[in-house]
Task: structure prediction
Amino acid sequence: MKELYDTISLQFTLKDFHQQKPNLAFATAEKQQLIALLTYMRDVHRYTHLVFVTAVDWLEENRFQITYMLHNYDIKADFGIRVMLDRDKPVMESIHHLWEQGRVYQRELHEMFGIDFPGSPGVNEPMILEGWQGPPVMRRDFDTAKYSLETYDHRPRDTREPESHMKEKLYPED
Amino acid sequence: MSYMDKTTGIPEQGITPPIPDTGEMPDREWRKDDKTLTNAELTLEEQDWFCDARPTPAKPAWGPVEKFYNWARANSLWILAFGTGCGAIELRPLVTARYDISRLGMQPRPTPRQASVFMIGGYVSIKTLKRIVRSYEQMQGPKFVVAVCSCAINGGMYWDSYNTVKRIDQYIPVDVYVTGCMPRPEAVMAGFSKLKELILAGKAEGQNLYAEKFDWYKANQKQVIKDWNMPDYNW
Amino acid sequence: MADLYPPIVNGKSVYDLNSGKYLKMWQGPQHPGVTGNMSLELIISGDQVVDCKTHVGYLHRGFEKLMERRRYINCFPIVCRICVPEPDTNEYLFAAAMEELLGVEIPERALWLRTLNLELSRLASFLMWTGGQSGAFGHGTVAQWALAHRDYVLDLFEEWTGARIYHMYMTPGGVRGELPEGWTKHCEQVLAGVEKLLGEVWHVMFNNAVFKSRAVGLGVITPDMIDHFGVVGPVARGSGMQRDVRKDSPYLVYDKLDFQIETETAGDTYARAVVRWKEMHQSISLIRQILKNMPASGPLHVTLPNVLHLKVPAGETYVRAESTRGEYGYYMVSDGSAYPRKITVRGPSYSHAMALLEHLAVGVNIADTHGLMLSLHTYPPEIER
Result:
């Protein structure tokens, strides 16, 4: 995987190479070069299978990480490409023309993280939530437990928080 | 049929080309207020209920006749086959050869208009709750609700989820609860037997409760379901 | 006849809903033929589908959000709820991703028991699919047989792990318990029964004229669609692709077992059904091999530090396994704290039910949409999590 990384690095700006397993590696790419890089990986290096697209919210560093995982069926290897986005202005170029299911992933990311993919078909339609009025739910500053307690009535009962209860029982001196 | 011109890599007709990134955030709002929801233009009445008319409580017939009715009702419980959550997976063993619920006079029905028992299978997300209310209101009386799985009782594992309600009896009346995650088919069958007992004793009055406290149920439903728009048909 | 179907402009049908020629109808979520709780918005002309749109989200519980605020071990009871008919893949992948980040090696016997668990759950899930697929084409009898035999497999699970549906057997660091006494014998009885059933299914379902005439040529997936739509698993193998995660990147003890990737070439519903029928035989053979070759005794799990205080080193990984629908994967990002930063579940139904089904349903007779949906083997809870 290191050779592959070196080969791509001749044409694209990559950094943070990390080899997790013999057949799985990650690298961070530039946002502007991403579509070209994905096309290059797909057509030249035969990374033809888009495994998934997902986002990670790094709230402390104020940025989103989008991970595109590509798989090569010939050599059975995965390459994860990370892109960092500004959290205040999350716009990313769309990949729906490269893979058909890309638009579905982008629709989900738009709904769950509020990341915009201009030009992706149907990206503005709600996919999972219906009539949702709050902020995008998967962002880390959205507190789901607080929202749930405020919105939905809960059945009164005698509850113990497992963590503090077990702590009292097992580690009273802690 | 090829999706991409292999030599040029240019998408064929039918795939809209991507918009190059200009570095500007498009002016799009994901946060919706009440005015931008799809149901904004509906009249109040259309927003209110999915049935043609407001339900009215049914008056019981003269003593022995009502008893006969209850006997008949208890012995032909037809289940609405709407799998609203994980619990639906135990509905299949229940209606097939192993547990064979039809020997108890029950069978699944595909449409709410032929069913008398609504089996809520587990957690109820907001999007499903709207369909549940709609299906429940379309069911003809007498109708009963059996809520299966812990999630329908108090939220269960998803007590802190933003998208599942915790108490289904706030939104539609429930006659019998079956606990467990997942309850075994025997437990579900025991729940149905309990429902039969209740019907025979004339105590399964969920439908009348819904009609009497209709406004309370509607207010609860409206509190969580923001988008009341019905699916659009062209007929 | 020429103006029966709407003109196609830019790859999309152009139709006027008010012309009276097209009918818009919804199938699901309250519909017995739809797989689970999802819906199809169909535009039909006569009885042919002109346009199809999949709507999901009825089962959304926000797993990925819930896991962010639970400790690793507290995530464990909820991961198996992501896919109801086949929960063990989720358990295995969550445990495997966690073990990989922790750098834990699990004992030999636990590897074999995990493989046994996965194969048995594959068998149960395939039997459920048999019931669905035959039911969608009007074979109620086969559905009754298959679901009853699935129940016998669930009985094995119950005897082994104590639960029918959600087993929670593969804990991080190993497995939870030993096989009970006499279980192997019961297992062999059930497998013999399922094997006999498969022979009968072949005669009754696969040689049936109605099933053949409806399934052959329905929903053809050509090889050049495979990568474009992200098709995996038996659906890809039905189009002649030699792709199976168990062979491609062997996990657990699959490299010590003897099996072939089962493929068909036609790429239609019938070919996919045949692939799944062959894979049920394959699962039975694998279970027998595991029971024969498994080490008789040994430790079942490694000792982890107190899991409530467990901190997973920062890093990210992706693990995958072959479920009945194809490649199932977990992408886990840890920031070094006791809570996972992000866990993404890659369910195979995601690409099958959304992009692919919308494409394949166009031109299909409306009565066949459910058969088509089931031949893609979609389980909605893993789409929206």
User: Anything to note?
Assistant: Chain C touches chain A through 41 residues (CB under 8 Å).
